[in-house]
Amino acid sequence: MNVFAFDIETVPDVTGGRRLLGLEGLDDHQVAEAMLAVRRGESGGDFLRLHLHRVVVISVAARIGGKFRVFSIGDADSDEGEVIQRFFDGLERYVPRLVSWNGGGFDLPVLHYRALIHGLSAPRYFETGDNDREFRWDNYLNRFHERHTDLMDVLAGFQPRANAPLDEIATLCGLPGKLGMSGGQVRARIEAGDFAAVRDYCETDVLNTYLLYLRFERLRGRLDEAGYRDACEQVRETLVEAGRPHLDEFLAAWHRD
Asked: Which of 22, 62, 226, 253 has a Cα at 20 to 30 A from 204?
């Protein structure tokens, strides 16, 4: 079974905000500030509605055909539609189990809206059994199916009041958690031209998520102790071979059990 633990990073969709709020003549920073001000007036906070998030990178910790790798889709100059289409093309090709932390509440709805805006195609992702009977009882869209496993949702017993942050659960489990950056800093880093920092941050998030998924598989008996340790060692070896600074930092902070 192929597995994709995934995460997205986003910034305000200033093109959409400019259109919706009639802000022609303002630069991107001014439009973003106006969008956040409107949102604060609506909700008291500045977390934008999901359709107003522009995806800048999608990172994946993937087990494909028994091999493990970490990669990101998109770079500083990538078109958002192309990034999202490549993600859905990967689902079409590998039909993986998707694993996320709050993917049902954030990442996937954002991708739905943005794919619709860009006129993309994702037939395998939206399959519910009409063309492939295997998807009738296990598809990506049903909250209680496993083809997309939102670990936060499952571990909370599907009770929003029981939700926990990825960073805290990862840290309690001996994983690195956040390494010097948080989601609230993404916009500033992108505006400063530091896309690499955002990409690296996203990749460490999916590593935390994938390793929590392995613990979850052990918890429910789908991995025995030897299988769990072998899977963790596969991740470690992959990161060592990659030799990238943020992955080395992740390794150094990972307290393996």
From this structure: 226
pTM of the model: 0.96
Q: How many domains does the chain have?
A: 1
Task: State the Cα–Cα distance between residues 127 and 66, nearest whole angstrom.
Answer: 25
* CB 64, CB 74: distance < 8 Å: no
Domain boundaries, position 204: 3-253
What is the sign of the dihedral through the CA atoms of 102, 103, 104 and 105?
positive
- pLDDT tens, residue by residue, 218-242: 999 999 999 999 999 999 999 999 9
Sheet with 53-64: strands ordered across:
67-73, 53-64, 3-12, 97-100, 148-150
CA pair distance 82, 178, nearest whole angstrom? 28
Distances (CA, A) of 21 to 31, 62, 114, 122, 197: 9, 39, 18, 30, 31
157-172 tens-digit pLDDT? 999 999 999 999 999 9
**pLDDT tens digits along 7-57:** 999 999 999 999 999 999 999 999 999 999 999 999 999 999 999 999 999
Distance CA 105, CA 3 (A): 20
Q: Are 213 and 98 in contact (CB under 8 A)?
A: no
Residue 109 burial by Cβ neighbours in a 10 Å radius (0-12, 13-18, 19+): middle
